[in-house]
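Sat 14:20. Reprocessing the chain from the morning session after the first attempt stalled halfway. Input below, unchanged.
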Amino acid sequence: MTASESRALEFRIRDAVAADAPTIVAFNAALAWETERKQLDPRVLTAGVAAALADPDRLRYWVAATRDDPRVIGQAAVTREWSDWRHGWIWWLQSVYVADDARRRGVFRALHRAIRDDARARPDVIGLRLYVEVENHAAQATYRGLGMSPGGYHVYEEIWTERFNRAASDVPG
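Finished this time. Tokens:
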């Protein structure tokens, strides 16, 4: 067993539950700030996390804790994309975050292993993908270290921010 495999065994990886929502909201807000310097609307983010936790087919979160402490110290989520070209699901990793005091200890490696193992156990899942900010070199090095490589695509998007405000107005509070 390698040192990294030994470290990975120190963590409990599980599906997130509703009680994890405050931590996931905090981690997602920190992730947006650290990687993109974006301040997320807390009401929209809270509603989005609650919707995901209520419907894992929409977005499934995994969380990590140590064997000795139930406090969540890392997270990753998966959305699914159907590939008609390959006749299978691609799982997109997103919302990857590890608490500051838990970084460089194998938390994401353990999360990645659990997600990858789950995906490989399903015959209709054909691979994993993720996107990473161009300047986030530390994350890119981590992903390469896990055997991932650039997929050869640039992500283009059209985001309708006015819908965030509409969604927030539908949130009680």
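The longest strand covers residues 88-98.
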